[in-house]
Amino acid sequence: MPYCCQCGNQVAASDRYCRSCGTVQAAAGSQSGAHNNPQSNPRLDDFATNGFWNTRNASRLCYFPWLGWVACVLVLATQRFQRDYEVRFHAFQGLYLFVAWLLVDWVISPVLRMTHYGFWQPMPFMGGGVLHLLILAAWIVMYFKTKRGEHYRLPILGDLAERTVAEQRGGG
Length: 172
Known about the structure:
Blueprint: H1 28-36, H2 42-49, H3 55-61, H4 68-77, H5 85-114, H6 116-119, H7 128-147, H8 157-171
Helix pairs in contact: 3-5, 3-7, 4-5, 5-7, 5-8
């Protein structure tokens, strides 16, 4: 059974639109030509274009907490997403979120612990812990925004991501 080219949900071969996201599907006649090609592997083609590694799933994986940076690097290194603005935007925004996590973990939290500010806190979770929670919340929100196909920019990191994608387009 074929899958939606946008969201990856199963669709019938005769469906013109995905029931889940409404994306126009390839015509049944154009798919039959690919299946008649002896060098084409339909299962591999479906997996690569409509399966797990489609644009929405690639964008969503960039926001997987603590491990999303791996998907970000893969997306940015893959030829398939070289010209896909949306996926590259989410990859850069996900990378910047991970860098923000590392800055809080390696710089801000130790500084707060060394100052009197860190010692006066009634709970050890305050200070750097609150910033960690905010970044974790941003990862979760962005994961679900990309799952629904929404383009959402985080306040500072989204601007950086858009600027980076634009610079690569202009320079590449």
